[in-house]
Amino acid sequence: MSHNLLLLLHLFIFLSLSITSSLSSPSPADSHPYLWPLPVEFSSGNDTLSVDPAVTLIVAGNGGGSPIVRAAFERYMGIIFKHVSSRASLLAKIRFLRMVEYDYDITSLKIIVHSDSEELQLGVDESYTLMVSKKNEQSVVGAATIEANTVYGALRGLETFSQLCAFDYLTKSVQIYKAPWYIQDKPRFKYRGLLVDTSRHYLPIDVIKQIIESMAFAKLNVLHWHIVDEQSFPLETPTYPNLWKGAYSRWERYTVEDASEIVRFAKMRGINVMAEVDVPGHAESWGTGYPDLWPSLSCREPLDVTKNFTFDVISGILTDMRKIFPFELFHLGGDEVNTDCWKNTTHVKEWLEGRNFTTKDAYKYFVLRAQQIAISKNWTPVNWEETFSSFGKYLDPRTVVQNWLVSDICQKAVAKGFRCIFSNQGYWYLDHLDVQWDTVYNTEPLNGIEDPSLQKLVIGGEVCMWGETADTSVVLQTIWPRAAAAAERMWSTREAVSKGNITLTVLPRLHYFRCLLNNRGVPAAPVDNWYARRPPSGPGSCYAQ
Amino acid sequence: MRGKGANIAGVLPLFMLFIAGGISAFEDIEKLRIWPLPAEVSRGGRRMILTGDFKLVTEGSKYGDPSGILKEGFDRMLGIVKLSHVISGDQNSSGSTGSALLEGLIVIISSSTDELEYGADESYKLVVASGDKPSYAQIEAKNVYGALHGLQTFSQLCHFNVKKKIIEILMTPWNITDHPRFSYRGLLIDTSRHYLPLPIIKNVIDSMTYAKLNVLHWHIVDTQSFPLEIPSYPKLWNGAYSSSQRYTFEDAGEIVNYARRRGIHVLAEIDVPGHALSWGKGYPALWPSKDCQEPLDVSSDFTFNLIDGILSDFSKIFKFKFVHLGGDEVNTTCWSATPRIAQWLKKHRMSEAEAYQYFVLRAQKIALSHGYEIINWEETFNNFGSKLNPKTVVHNWLGTGVVERVTKSGFRCIVSNQDKWYLDHIDAPWQGFYANEPFQEIKDKKQQSLVLGGEVCMWGEHIDASDIQQTIWPRAAAAAERLWTPYAKLAKNPNKVTTRLAHFRCLLDQRGVAAAPLAGGGRVAPLEPGSCLAQ
Q1: Where is the Beta-hexosaminidase eukaryotic type N-terminal domain positioned along the sequence (chain B) (predicted)?
Q2: Which of B239, B241, B374, B265 is nearest to B318 (CA)?
């Protein structure tokens, strides 16, 4: 039935079985905790604790009663106890077992949240402490405790807690090895992003939610939603209702309510959504609904710089989007602006001459005017680096510059006092399929920036999943596991991610995390692939591929 | 105002949208968007809107839904028609367009059992809307599993209207009468070459229901790993890849239950004696020797006791009437090369080939003793067909012409010829999956009746959690229509159904299944930006 080549295969498998058996079983005795990303501080012991499938949630603090905490607790219980049919149906069984006095070590999870604010913004406190220990004199009830200043810190703590829990196949129960655990953790960068692109390929709402869910597993916290580009305009904008005529089809669209639901779904997981409209260069699809936005029918990009209508539409879009996207950052694009159409279209050319503008002046004029619109809506503009390299000193000082092209642009931008997001294409563009996990991992956003006050201006980084060749069928396996490598770089301490032989200190943990993603239903690709999103090279253990 | 005029007014804006999207409006409205194509369909031209409290009505049904299979199926159906959209439009008034409201779905089932029986009637009738109750759709079915198929078809009639933000059904009244052409419509998954986590298997099962496939052939164990717990022989799963790449006995029971509640049988396979090296990790006595580990030791009763133990355990959770015993690709050189076994062969005056036959037949008897009917790969038939138990179902994979010979000999047959229906052949395009006719050249009705159906096989050498869905879909869907739809309704030229299959692939995507583009073979990433409907 299956492939022939059996003898050869047997030989190969035999070899790999004997090799993998030493690697494959993540044993509790290993020296590194299988946590991803690695917490800032942690200590562990030698106890093995069983976790009660009916573990109860105890909340405390001003923010303990938040529905965000309650919902997250239920989500993580589903993840931790997925091997038993369902937690709900099990509760009855457990109560029965209780009568025969089965003793679990961990019977409750206490979550203390000090602040009652659920506002999610850049720089929200994501720190937490997590303690897991056996019953002792102080506490008759064995417990795990998460303490955080905000609900979002509590979410990060829950993720770490879920990674400590392992299903033990012999006892068929969930165990925490190497307890007692004491973990104190916080992110190194406040902006840890992933870009998705719904213009080159529409991503169904369900798929976007799968991506958001998976981001939370790696403690990423910004979904950069590159909504529109020249290929399609999938989002409804009530003020200019013809814009989404630029969608690929009636099916491939998001309503305003859909977008709000995505933002809500992300917020429940502590993830901000940063929307982008990329002007003036990447906007051809806008003209499908409003052809006046094109310089001419035959020359359609960039947007017509001469018309007030162009800026009215931008203002309308931003007004509509402000109701959807509460995040303080808004991305205005500004990259790859080829101004030939302006030069070649008579009325634009006349307008340029009338103002004594070069095309570059017009590009600057466009970007700055768009920035002011965003600022007037109480948004902080983010722009791709070309805006900085072309006319940096004119940019609004609040601008966050997003790197992609030149490796030292953040260095230059922070030197001029701008904030910066690192996304260098050679390392952190996920559509570059030939970039392997170790290259992603070893890329340091602060490279070349020594002054601590300047380092602070690098707010973080972002891996970019451009959509030209990534649709529903391949997007998750192109993102994962490489995005996880960047996620640890951005979360864990610089010392922790920069020392030692990463093949020994990091790779086994990344293997483990990739399998964890698979076990949670996320189709993360093999870690060892020399080329992203390729199938596994042969039969084998997830922990060895 | 209702009726024709209003209806045109309702459809027209959508018509405009199609043009804007670059999709031919005419095709979109004129052609059916149902996969697999039902046996009989008629439709009208009127639009209906699903109300916000769209409900399930079971009055008049003999089926009491004791374990909630129907209710769950109905709720799942409502979930997938929304495609995760927020339904924020006015669902409870017909509005200015004059569209009629559809308030619920009446499901009338004539059998009270929820036993999932192989070969039971899977037919259903679906009308939207009912003649008696014009604001209700109605499904009639012999049993609940037929009704589940009806729910799937119903889900494909529903559309999310992005402008009105409601769920609607165009072109009512619909009258659909439907039943499968073949009773066995399978998909093989392989959890030995790579472990597939539980949520992934469940995703695969869910996606199968969308294409009305009904048998998950679970190739659990093979040379590489033994992931399943066998209580009678608790060391067998020492052959798992690792301590965590395993299924407990309860997990397997849960998979069977999950599938059953969706009308899908689970066919368990242990592939003996050839594909079983991993068994010996826990019980090295099963290997001919440490250096020669496959096939299983034919000379030892322990081997057969162990098979008996496995099948005894299987019979507690795998309730399908068939069990698959493999029997393919048996390289018997280890038997002759091992002195102990060579002596045994000599003593029993058996050649290697006869020992192979002895093994397969003895395993068959064990399976029969546990109440199973047996499926074996075709080599068993090719080598000693006349000796096989007459209840054997022969599973084709290698050659063409086998189906003809098998059925001529009076055996039942499942078609999976590798050149067309092996999903791991990623250069095999969907058109070949569509065009592969299980009857091949068989004209004799009796022989035709012995072809139970077919199966597409997702062998796992290069398949893990990261690429299984896009290697299965959309090509498995092409085979699913071949297995479901009446022969006369199938396109002679597969390219005629491209648009409808592209639509189904996008539907899978929208439902969160990572189905690959149609262009090329299997699992191709899109080459460039574009609409899902055009790739």
Answers
A1: 34-157
A2: B265
Alpha-carbon distance of A267 to A216, in angstroms, equals 10
- Residue B156 near residue B35 (C-beta atoms within 8 A): yes
Please report the pLDDT score of residue B32 as a whole number.
Answer: 80
CB nearest to B83's CB, from A205, A472, A476? A205
- A6: chain B residues, CB-CB within 8 Å: 329, 331
Q: For B406-420, what is the mean pLDDT? A: 97
- Sequence-distant (6+) residues with CB within 8 A of B528 are A468, A469
Can you give the pLDDT at residue A139?
58
Tokens of B452: 């139970």
Q: What percent of chain B has pLDDT over 70?
A: 93
Which of A454, A517, A455 is CA-nearest to residue A485? A517
Angle between helix B69-82 and B144-157 (nearest 10): 10
**B10-24, B70-84, B341-355, B484-498: least confident range:** B10-24
In this predicted structure, which of A327-341, A454-468, B7-21 has the lowest mean pLDDT?
A: B7-21
Find tokens 């009127």 and name the residue: B46
Q: Which one, of B533, B500, B363, lies nearest residue B434 by Cα?
A: B500
Is the pLDDT at A89 greater than 80? The verdict is no
This complex has an ipTM of 0.91
From the list B192, B248, B523, the residue facing A172 with the nearest CB is: B248
pLDDT digits (tens, 9 = 90+) for B357-371: 999 999 999 999 999
What are the distances in angstroms from CA B222 to CA A62, B340, B393?
55, 24, 21
Whether A533 and B466 lie within 8 Å, measured CB to CB: yes
Listed by number, the residues of chain B in 191-230 with a beta carbon closer than 8 Å to a beta carbon of chain A are: 192-195, 197-200, 203, 222-225, 229
User: Is the per-residue pLDDT at A314 higher than 80?
Assistant: yes
- Option in A249, A467, A541 nearest B533 (CB): A249
How many Cβ contacts (< 8 angstroms) between chains A and B?
268
The distance of B132 to chain A (nearest Cα, Å) reads: 33
Task: Tell me the CA end-to-end span of chain A in Å, nearest whole number.
Answer: 25
Which residues of chain B make contact with A244, given a CB cutoff of 8 A? 162
A291 contacts A243 by C-beta, under 8 angstroms: no
Q: Tell me the C-alpha to C-alpha distance, in Å, between residue A452 and each of A455, A457, B516.
A: 5, 9, 47
Question: Which comes out higher in pLDDT, residue B449 or A12?
Answer: B449
Tokens at B378, concatenated: 């075709």
Nearest chain A alpha carbon to B204: A521
Whether residue A539 and residue B243 make contact (CB cut-off 8 A), yes or no, is no
Contacts of A258 in chain B (CB under 8 A): 84-86
Rounded percentage of chain A residues whose pLDDT exceeds 90: 85
In the stretch 417-436 of chain B, residues with CB closer than 8 A to chain A read: 418, 424
Chain B residue with the nearest C-alpha to that of A261: B86
**What is the CB-side half-sphere exposure of residue B213 using CA atoms within 13 A?**
29
Specify whether the CB–CB gap between B401 and B434 falls below 8 A: no
Average pLDDT estimate for A513-542: 95
Q: How far off is chain A from B128, nearest CA to CA, in Å?
A: 23
Distance CA A360, CA A294 (A): 18
Secondary structure (DSSP) of A292-358? GGSS-SS---S--TT-HHHHHHHHHHHHHHHHH---SEEE----S--THHHHHSHHHHHHHHHHT--
Place of tokens 């409006």: B25
Give the separation between CA B138 and CA B126, rounded to whole angstroms: 6
Query: How many residues comprise chain A?
Result: 545
